[in-house]
Amino acid sequence: MVENFDYSLIDWSRAQFALTAMYHWLFVPLTLGLGFIMAFMETIYYKTGNPEWKKLTKFWMKLFGINFAIGVATGLILEFEFGTNWSNYSWFVGDIFGAPLAIEGILAFFLESTFVAVMFFGWKKVSKKFHLVSTWLVAFGANLSALWILVANAWMQLPAGMTFNPETARNEMTNFWDVFLSPMAVNKFLHTISSSFVLGAIFVIGISAWFLLKKREVVFAKRSILVAGVFGLISSIFTILVGDISGQLVAKNQPMKFAAIEGLYKGQKNAGLIAIGMFSTQNPEEARKNVKDFAFKIEIPNMLSYLAYRDFEAFVPGIEDIIEGSYEYTDKSGKKVTALSANEKIRRGRKAIRALSNYKIAKDNKDEAAMASARKVLDENFQYFGYGYFNDPNRLIPNVPLTFYSFHLMVLLGFYFVLFFIVILILLYKRRLDGNKLWLRVSIITMPLAYLASMFGWVTAEMGRQPWVIQDLMPTMAAVSRLDAGSVELTFWLFAVLFTALLIAEIRIMTKQVKIGPKEGGR
Amino acid sequence: MFEVLSHLQLQHYWWFIISLLGSLLVFLMFVQGGQTMIYTLGKNKTERSMIVNSLGRKWEFTFTTLVTFGGAFFASFPLFYSTSFGGAYWVWMLILFCFIIQAISYEYRSKPNNVFGPRTYEVFLFINGALGTILIGTAVGTFFNGAEFSVGKQNVANIFTTVDVTISRWETPAHGLEAVLNFHNVALGLSVFFLARILAVLYFMNNIDDENIFRRSKKQLLYNTIPFLVFFLYFVIRLLIMEGFAYDPKEGIVSMESYKYLNNFLAMPLVLVIFLAGVVLVLYGIIKSLLKTYTKGIWLTGIGTVLTVLGLFMVAGYNNTPFYPSNFDLQSSLTIQNASSSEYTLTVMSYVSLFVPFVLAYIYYAWSAINKKKIDADEMSDGEHHY
Q: Residue A498 is nearest to which of B100, B106, B353, comparing CB atoms?
């Protein structure tokens, strides 16, 4: 069972997916955010006819194009990796998961690629209005593609709208709208795109601040900061609001992830929120359970209970409670129930897997009564199917420090960004930004922080849900393709070298274009 | 509307959509063909610049079609997605690498400070054009010649007997590269490669306003048509006379059948007509372009390409034929029945497919808006965005 899986293969497969996904995510948020900023600028140009706004638009468009190309390059592999490296996954849930990917291609990618050509090459070939519409469609298309892939990702975290078919040994979609409009999907989409808008805005402010420091393109830079600052401020507040809802959804549907995010081992009523904290060195005796104590922490009393359940007194289960069970909670249908222990879930999971096996035997023997009986057991226990692959309940605990730190750094940066936009806009309004070297430098330093915050968000979401590739139904180790670990290791390094080389080229081309500035044409 | 269709009818509908996307992809690979001829057709910087820019306005369509082809295959026939991509790992990884390096090359090639120099990006484009087309063609060849895999859908429940819970298993250590040992597969790969080059020169003759490029393109049209015909005819003749894989829908058994693909053509006269019309159009476009000063050959040969490939895909999957046969275990072969998504998912996806004509319409509208005038040398120095 679990101990016998080829962990070297699983680890390399995970490492490769993480590497390619993180490289891809270096470029996507800028495309999502900058797309709309360009569209706003071009709209002002369209309305006013002022060529300065056209120059502004074209400069940011140039940077958009450089970033877009590498985003496309790194995105290709991600789609196919579900097949190449996670083939079991692709069959087990492909009936549901494949649809958003195909819809993304048909509805979003063509929209982006068609109108991106008009946007870059059409300035002198199409009318101003058609060009403006094209720019908006590029921004819209990019965000539409994010929608579908995030619907797919949300479904992995909160499977909905499907049933398991023992005939085909896979999950099959029964309600498209339950998949598409799942609260997790809607929330994930809004949180991800709004945080990407924040990144796009910070990117524009950072580069504009560099121009101001160099005392170049002053009007251009201030106009850019104005558009990006307003857009960024609204987006950053919105990101926090939907992030709060996201916390409630995770508490309800992925309690283990929620406990890991807070480093909460022992559940409690009136649970406090750790605003800042650091784990002490690992306690060797408890290391097996992945338990860490805090060296220090600043805690806001009762706040965790409130954030999770909108009730200051609510009980928030910790990691140990989830493993041991026996606490009361409200299930997805709103009923008060007692939590099962991890061992009981494992037992039921095995029952489900055994029933699937028995179903096949009964089918081969054409024994309909046995088929019906196996089916009944399977249906009763299917919600624990994935647990059956485990022996040791402690394997159900994600990497707590990684999840905790990622989440807290993301949140701290999120609040910092709101403050940052407010200060920048006030300085701009009071005409005190030009000479303010401190805040101009802070603006430049904030650029990498925006990228880090975005990455921390994904690390929280994806590491926090381990060991599941589909929550409760399929563990990551059972999803992997049967390859030798050496092959995946080799492709991992090939991707690492290729993507790093392309990233270096991208950064050098981009910095050169920034130095050339907006006065040059579209070289 | 689609609810009235049976699961089997939906499976047929979706195999048609996959076939259509596959054939559009082959047509759009004129971009790849052109990338292998930048230096053959462009003898100075301006000429090469015109060629790269002419292709650069289209490459994203080929790329997007490839991605959509993958996504649509996943959504409609997920067992193929998991079996082939997860099994023939090295073939697909090589194909993906070929396309990754293409995606940045247009944008970065002529930009200052691009680290590796323009030639590197041109080599990337060449690799994508040559290896990408040959490998995709060779991989599709296994639709007719089979591959080395086994499938056990219930393997996910194997935890009590064995540790291996993998559903699709590849049975050779070469993980797909063994396809090149069958020359019939490679012949299809080389046919695709030379066809892509033929389409590319026809496209340049239509899209670039330059006498020298036109003249050289015409010469290259002849040079590429000869090897194309050799490999393509070999592929088709061998296909018609070889044993093929047949599926008995009543018993669910796969067996070998003599002249299976010839029988498929004869059993489906409409498919035969589509295929023959395609081949005739491909040749007519080429011959007309060779004999006259004709610039619309890309449309004749392009439409011909779509019809020809459509015909080939349809004989691969229709008439009870496993579209992805297994040589290792005949009964593991994938058919449009056993590899498909559920009836519900295919129905949902069929509604989504109704957007395809709308997508094609706006692509046509946008293309005609920016292609009103052919690319010429003046445009390369007008200060606007260029590759």
A: B100
CB contact under 8 A, B85 and A87: yes
Domain tally, chain A: 2
Are residues A320 and A365 both part of a single domain? no
| Separation CA A390–CA A348 (nearest Å) | 11
**Are both A263 and A324 inside the same structural domain?**
yes
> Domains of chain B: which residue ranges?
2-153+161-381
Q: Are residues A264 and A323 in the same domain?
A: yes
- Would you call A170 and B83 a contact, using CB atoms and an 8 Å cutoff? no
Do the beta carbons of residue A148 and residue A107 sit within 8 Å? yes
Residues of A whose CB is below 8 A from B159: 1, 350, 353, 388-389
Helix (H) or strand (E) holding B90: helix B89-109
Rounded Cα–Cα distance for residues B55 and B204 (Å):
9
How far apart (Å, rounded) are the C-alpha atoms in residues B353 and B270? 23
Compute the CA torsion angle B284, B288, B289, B292 (nearest 10 deg): 180
Residue A383 lies in a domain: yes
Total-model pTM: 0.92
Chain B hits for A484, CB-CB cut-off 8 Å, are 173
User: Could you tell me the residue range of the domain that residue A273 belongs to?
Assistant: 259-336
Q: Clarify whether residues A265 and A332 are in a common domain.
A: yes
pLDDT of chain B, 387 residues: tens digit per residue = 888 999 999 999 999 999 999 999 999 999 999 999 999 999 999 999 999 999 998 998 899 999 999 999 999 999 999 999 999 999 999 999 999 999 999 999 989 999 999 999 999 999 999 999 999 999 999 999 999 999 988 888 888 776 688 889 999 999 999 999 999 999 999 999 999 999 999 999 999 999 999 999 999 999 999 999 999 999 999 999 999 999 998 888 999 999 999 999 999 999 999 999 999 999 999 999 999 888 899 999 999 999 999 999 999 999 999 999 999 999 999 999 999 999 999 999 999 999 989 998 998 888 888 877 788 887 777 767 777
